[in-house]
Amino acid sequence: MSRQEIIQPFAGTHNVQSDLAGRNSIAWEEIEKSFSWHETGKVNMAYESVDRHVADGFGDKIALHYVEEGREWKITYKELKEKTDSWAQVLKKNGVKKDDFLFVFLPKHPECHIAILAAIKLGVIVGPLFEAFMEEAVRDRIADCEGKYIITNEEYLQRVPLKDLSSLETIFLTDENPDYLEAISIPKELEKIDTNESIIEWVDLDDGLNIHYTSGSTGKPKGIIHAHRAMIQQYITGRWVLDIKEEDVYWCTAHPGWVTGCVYGIFAPLLNRATVVIHGGRFNADSWYETIEKTGVTVWYSAPTAFRMLMAEGNEALGRHDLSKLRHILSVGEPLNPEVIYWGVENLNLRIHDTWWMTETGAQLIVNLPTEAIKPGSMGKPLPNIETAIFDDDGNILPLGEVGHLAIKGPWPAIMKGVWKDEAKYASYFPFGPEWYLAGDLASKDEEGYIFFQGRSDDMINSSGERIGPFEVESKLIEHPAVAEAGVIGKPDPIRGEIVKAFIVLNKNYYTSPTLLENIRLFVRGRLAAHSAPREIEVVEELPKTKISGKILRRELKAKEIEKLKLIHV
Ligand code: PRX
């Protein structure tokens, strides 16, 4: 097929069409009426995601479908209610209560979902941690909000530096017979629990729900706290953007430690009563396609890097699987290049719908609705009820077509409740007054309202859709005895969007060698996480710096790197 600049919607009936029935939007207050709490005002995300469906007679529907190399486990909504109730009882019995911070550090597995939902039943603020975090990444997060509890397993406990975490009162393990005797074994405790007792702590719409740590270009990761009110937008985007219907089997490939894996891997699909697929293990083209085939995935939410990795595998793996049940595909986290959209149309006979949002925004804001034309290269248009603008540096709204700061008019239901212990950081998102939230992204808008992503206005790195703060990596690099100074940037990469590249100045008496560079790379990888470790390290004599404050000019490093890439491609 010819490559079109605009890809019209494919045939089909979509929720957004029937819900709007010719209107442009529905007021948030009207959407609230979809919830059981709209009269009392007292809410609980876990009730709306699980218990409510059982009360409505859908207890036998499959809620979670887990697959991993030969293993499979299906859990109905009724079983999920019982499990989250009994886990919540175990937590409650051991002192966990509303507004406590509880971290969940588990692999992609139903127990991760159960742990998160059980804690939410108690009104706890849950901090899901990415499964590949190493000691220091775990420590920074738990220590920052003085987390009192963690649910993990004995294998991952090795990466929880207990000696540095004096705030941790109780460790819950998912192992039946852990060697670590100071922890509480959830399976053991469950034997003593009455499985019929329901637990729900009714909370206010603005009470804390979850905390996700996220990087900026300066300082350590910041704790972004969300409130239960986020469910209003998470539900409706699940309905309109993911287009989830009763018969859908839905797979979001992100780990719940990332905001996408939590919001669109747990909350949005369960609020919409979907069957949620959980794939354990790492990326592998065959096992991904097999997951889609075996579980009958109909709606699939992933990221450009994953699609590019599948494209790079060629069509052989694709040809080995029957993906005919797939009907809707979406993408998030990094720019979706037109090539990927054309690949979807040509090989899967489906459009890939880009969506834009951030940890801070709590839910999708700029989207490609299934009913709208897609312009490859654009992130789509604002969700109904959402207004966007492009600002110049002084807070003036720019004319169409010009590149500037992407801003969203607030508030919307899912916007963050706050930045933990950092009011100044929160205020920094609103430099032009409380009305407009600035994303930190640069973008432009065309005459039809389509928004085109143009990059970041800061030095944040986006590798495989994962947000990496250069400061965090630089700080770790200079802890290595050989490294005197470090400047870290995102270097453009055809598969991962960007890769982490470090420029380092060596201390006296150290000489560059492949072994030393590998040692430095592993030093970061072993302490932060694999995705934060520089894939490339270049030793330089000195780093470019600002004249007055002596700050490293990452922009200059990046500009030079991009120049070099251009020369290679000439
Ligand atoms: O730069 C934008 C990029 O990811 C940032 C948000 O990262 P994070 O908080 O980790 O959330 C990721 C997923 C919700 C944004 O500021 N980003 C996100 N989606 C897109 C994107 N860049 C281009 N296109 C997108 N669709």
What does this structure look like?
InterPro entries: AMP-bd_C (IPR025110), AMP-bd_C_sf (IPR045851), AMP-binding_CS (IPR020845), AMP-dep_synth/lig_dom (IPR000873), ANL_N_sf (IPR042099). It comes from Lederbergia lenta (Bacillus lentus). One of its GO terms (molecular function) is acetate-CoA ligase activity. Pfam families: AMP-binding (PF00501), AMP-binding_C (PF13193). Its EC number is 6.2.1.1. The protein has about 575 residues and is of the alpha/beta class. The chain folds into two domains: about 15-20 and about 25-440, Rossmann fold (3-Layer(aba) Sandwich), CATH 3.40.50; about 460-570, ANL, C-terminal domain (GMP Synthetase, Chain A, domain 3, 2-Layer Sandwich). It has 18 helices and 28 strands. The strands form seven sheets. A nine-stranded mixed beta sheet has the order 3-2-13-12-14-15-16-17-18, sandwiched between helices. A five-stranded parallel beta sheet has the order 5-4-6-7-8. A four-stranded antiparallel beta sheet has the order 19-20-22-23, with no helix packed on it. Strand 22 and strand 23 (about 450-455) form a beta hairpin. Helix 4 (about 75-95) crosses helix 5 and helix 9 packs across helix 10. The longest helix has 17 residues, at about 75-95. The mean pLDDT is about 95. Adenosine-5'-monophosphate-propyl ester (PRX) binds next to helix 10, strand 16, strand 22 and strand 23.
Radius of gyration: 23 Å
- CATH superfamily heading of the largest domain: ANL, N-terminal domain
Spatial strand arrangement across the major sheet: 3-2-13-12-14-15-16-17-18
- Kindly name the structural category: alpha/beta
- Beta strands, count: 28
Number of domains: 2
EC number: 6.2.1.1
Keywords: Acetylation, ATP-binding, Ligase, Nucleotide-binding
InterPro entries: AMP-bd_C (IPR025110), AMP-bd_C_sf (IPR045851), AMP-binding_CS (IPR020845), AMP-dep_synth/lig_dom (IPR000873), ANL_N_sf (IPR042099)
Domain AMP-binding enzyme C-terminal: 472-547
